[in-house]
Structures are given as structure tokens and as C-alpha cells.
């Protein structure tokens, strides 16, 4: 089918996620056609380094035959098995066991979903059940962090703190609360790590008090690094300080590792960076590297046992048709094997090269801040470094930067306020990383010449 007719059919029939519907109709879709390693090619034959691994998910890179074979083998043998009626399949059972073995602490119980949003949604259901089971039904309030992202489900979108996910949708709900982000580049308390940690712990205590005390609060959610909010890296010790405070207050601590899980920041899970063990943990994306949809909720022993004991012989009524899908599980098992057969190691090396390369751009007149960890990074653009003046929103800097990078042979995430986001596949070669840096520099130089954004 010709590119033109695809664009037209798309315009007429395909509703895109997180898009300006009218803006998209006007601009038209760009069709991606094929990919190999860290390179994607569109339907015009234009090839680019995918500096964003699709949507922070294709951690292993594109075109890995062993994954295709694992999926095909499973499809031939048993394409579907429900987990209802106490049925199961070998790949799902093996995957749960392999993940439990690698997860921090006593996160020994794994509930499979289709992606990150329904993983977050599932945590809310498990947590409500848990608090009621403990005889604490009044613990029904949830707290998350400004600039955080926890998915696009009806419930998750209210834990998310990005305005576009709220406006017009009637969320957040009254039981969903936020505390300020640690965002160190623009933090009213300054950039000193100790001051930021003190401000965040004080804010959580104050929020809990405002809600009516710890006896009202069910759980606190954070991302070890805030992704969709602009790759905001907390100061060292921040995640641990929040974890410790939740334990002190008897509030469940949920780590949303949908982006940070599976090697993105170096270790298999970012919580490991600070030796933190959450009560619940959500993952998706890198779990299957985007080859097929799947997410996973990890439950600690005490959360799982409390729910199980309360239900007794009764049913815990939470489940999807595609929970623990055998094809997704077979893919995830192969992906996990690849991580440990050198991919995590390559990701750590490539991440060091990526961060060094991006830091080498720090003296560019438009670069206000370079931040990141491992293969997760951002460059924040400003027009005035001393004042940290953002690029003018009216000039649509994100669209301009995205388009320029694309033309230069680089796919990045361009956030609305002029932040360039990076999450390349962990398989990147030195040449891939160097191309990302060089094409970023070109994009910055062109943006500097663009009078509309200055
Ligand atoms: N949580 C976090 C931290 C995420 O980054 C995302 C997706 N970007 C989600 C949840 C939702 O995942 P999904 O898009 O797979 O539903």
C-alpha cells in the first residue's frame, strides 16, 4: 500500500494515543516500516538511530531472531492458556519464578498484566483489598509525586500528575493526592541533595497530616527516576528516604519501575541502586522489550499473604483474559536470557558513553542541564542559562526539536517544555551512541539558529 493511502486511512480511522487529534490529522502519520538493532527505517526509506527505544521499551533492540522463534514456537505449541480455573502454562510459571528470584527482597509473587497502566491499576485494587483485609478500610487515600506518570487507566491517570492526562477527563479523584517533585534543576529549595530530601520527606509527612493522618493513607507511589515528567533524576538517597518514611508511617511503598526496570538504569531494577525493597513494584516495557505486550506486578510476601489469608477459600476477583499470556511469557523468558547473556553489561557500557557524550554538550548555549543514569537521560534546553528560561511554549519547541532530530537521523522524545529525552536500546554499539550525540549536537545547533524559539 502506498504511503499516501496509509496516511489517509490513518487520518480517517486510527485514533492515536496521547495526540492532538486535529493536529495529527493535519500533520499526518509517519509510518515506520522496519528496524534492526538500534536503527529504525520509515516508509520513505529514511533510517534513524532510535534514541528512545520505541517508547522506552525495546531494550534488546530490534530484529532479534531468537525472540521471534520463542514466540513462534509458543504460538504453535499453545498460543493461549487462561490463568482462570487454576489453569496455567509452563512459560508463565517459569517466568514468575525467574522474576521472583531476581526481584529485590521478598517480592516473591508476580501478577501478569498486559502493560504498565493495568499493572498500576492492579496495584490499587490489591492495596485496597490489603488494607481492608488488615481491618484498616479507612486507609483509602493514595499519594504520588508531581510530574509523575503512572499510566493512562482511569485510576492510574489520577495518580499520574501530567495535566494533559487530567484535563477533560474528570481526574484525579478526591482520594488521589500529590507532593512536589524532587526536580533538582528547578526546585524552590535549590539543588542541594540533602535539602531536597528533607523537603520531600517533610512534604509527605505534611500531606499525610492534611489527609487526616497515616490511618487514612493506603500507599505512596514513586518512579525511581521520573520518566514522562522529563527524566527527572532524584538526588542519591531520595528513594530510600521516601521508602523509610513510608515504613515508619505504615504506608505501602510502591515503586513504579515500568520505565526503569530491566536494565534501563544499569541494574535489573533501579530500586537496587539504593538497596530499596518496595512493598509492591510495577514493571512492563523492558519485560518483553516491546515485542509483545506484557506487564508485571510484584507483590511482597506480606501483601500477598494478607490478601490470600483474608480471601481464604473465596475468590480474589481480579483478572484479565490475557493475564500471564503464554506467548508474552515465552518472549519475556527469552528477553531475560538475553539481558543476562551480555545485554545488561552492554547497556551499562553504552550508558556510560551516552552520559559522557551528552555531558560533552553541556557548554552548548542552549543546554541548561544534562541529567540521567545509565541508558535513561535528558537534555533540558533553555534560552538563558543563568535565568533557566524555558524555550517559548508558543513556538512549539517540542515539535520543532523532534522534527529536526528526525531529519538528522535520530529519534528522541521531545517534551513540551524543550527537554530532549533519551532511552536508547541497551544493544547500542559505540557507533550508535556516537551518532546519537553527533545528531543531538546538529539538532541543538539548528535550534540555536531558529529565531522562533529564542
Ligand atoms: N508507569 C510508568 C512509570 C510509565 O512510564 C508508563 C508508560 N510510559 C506506565 C506506567 C504505563 O504503561 P503502559 O503505557 O504500558 O500502559
Automatic annotation (TrEMBL):
SUPFAM superfamilies: PLP-dependent transferases (SSF53383). InterPro entries: Aminotrans_3, Aminotrans_3_PPA_site, PyrdxlP-dep_Trfase, PyrdxlP-dep_Trfase_major, PyrdxlP-dep_Trfase_small. Pfam families: Aminotran_3. The keyword Transferase applies. One of its GO terms (molecular function) is pyridoxal phosphate binding. The keyword Transferase applies. Keywords: Aminotransferase, Pyridoxal phosphate, Transferase. Transmembrane segments: none annotated. It comes from the Bacteria. Its cofactor is pyridoxal 5'-phosphate. Belongs to the class-III pyridoxal-phosphate-dependent aminotransferase family. This is Aspartate aminotransferase family protein.
Amino acid at each position: 500500500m502506498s504511503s499516501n493511502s496509509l496516511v489517509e486511512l490513518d487520518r480517517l480511522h486510527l485514533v492515536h494515543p496521547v495526540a492532538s487529534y486535529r493536529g495529527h490529522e493535519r500533520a499526518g502519520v509517519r509510518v515506520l516500516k522496519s528496524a534492526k538493532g538500534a536503527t529504525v527505517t520509515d516508509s520513505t526509506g529514511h533510517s534513524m538511530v532510535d534514541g528512545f527505544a520505541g517508547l522506552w521499551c525495546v531494550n534488546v533492540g530490534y530484529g532479534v531472531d531468537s525472540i521471534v522463534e520463542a514466540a513462534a514456537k509458543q504460538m504453535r505449541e499453545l498460543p493461549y492458556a487462561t490463568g482462570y480455573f487454576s489453569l496455567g502454562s509452563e512459560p508463565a510459571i517459569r517466568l514468575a519464578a525467574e522474576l521472583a528470584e531476581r526481584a529485590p527482597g521478598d517480592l516473591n509473587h508476580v501478577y501478569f498484566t498486559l502493560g504498565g497502566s493495568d499493572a498500576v491499576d492492579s496495584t490499587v485494587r490489591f492495596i485496597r483489598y490489603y488494607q481492608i483485609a488488615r481491618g484498616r478500610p479507612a486507609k483509602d487515600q493514595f499519594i504520588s509525586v508531581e510530574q509523575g506518570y503512572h499510566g493512562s487507566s482511569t485510576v492510574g491517570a489520577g495518580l499520574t500528575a501530567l495535566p494533559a492526562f487530567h484535563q477533560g477527563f474528570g481526574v484525579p479523584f478526591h482520594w488521589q493526592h500529590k507532593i512536589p517533585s524532587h526536580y533538582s534543576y528547578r526546585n524552590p529549595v535549590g539543588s542541594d541533595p540533602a535539602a531536597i530530601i528533607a523537603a520531600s520527606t517533610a512534604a509527605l509527612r505534611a500531606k499525610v497530616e492534611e489527609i487526616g493522618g497515616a490511618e487514612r493513607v493506603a500507599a505512596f507511589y514513586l518512579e525511581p527516576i521520573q520518566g514522562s515528567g522529563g527524566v527527572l533524576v532524584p538526588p542519591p538517597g531520595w528513594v530510600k528516604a521516601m521508602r523509610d518514611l513510608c515504613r515508619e508511617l505504615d504506608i505501602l511503598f510502591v515503586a513504579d519501575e515500568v520505565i526503569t526496570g530491566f536494565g534501563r538504569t544499569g541494574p535489573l531494577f533501579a530500586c537496587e541502586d539504593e538497596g530499596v525493597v518496595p512493598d509492591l513494584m510495577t514493571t512492563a516495557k523492558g519485560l518483553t522489550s516491546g515485542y509483545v505486550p506484557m506487564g508485571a506486578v510484584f507483590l511482597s510476601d506480606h501483601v500477598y499473604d494478607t490478601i490470600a489469608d483474608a480471601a481464604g477459600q473465596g475468590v480474589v476477583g481480579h483478572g484479565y483474559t490475557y493475564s500471564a499470556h503464554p506467548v508474552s511469557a515465552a518472549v519475556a523468558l527469552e528477553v531475560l536470557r538475553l539481558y543476562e547473556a551480555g545485554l545488561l553489561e552492554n547497556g551499562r557500557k553504552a550508558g556510560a558513553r551516552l552520559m559522557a557524550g551528552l555531558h560533552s554538550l553541556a557548554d552548548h548555549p542552549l543546554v541548561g542541564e544534562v541529567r540521567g543514569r545509565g541508558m535513561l537521560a535528558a537534555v533540558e534546553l533553555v534560552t538563558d542559562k543563568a535565568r533557566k528560561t524555558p524555550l517559548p511554549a508558543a513556538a512549539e519547541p517540542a515539535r520543532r526539536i523532534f522534527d529536526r532530530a528526525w531529519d538528522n537521523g535520530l529519534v528522541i522524545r521531545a517534551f513540551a517544555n524543550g527537554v530532549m529525552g533519551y532511552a536508547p536500546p541497551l544493544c547500542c554499539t559505540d557507533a550508535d551512541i556516537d551518532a546519537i550525540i553527533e545528531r543531538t549536537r546538529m539538532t541543538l545547533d539548528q535550534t540555536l539558529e531558529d529565531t522562533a524559539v529564542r
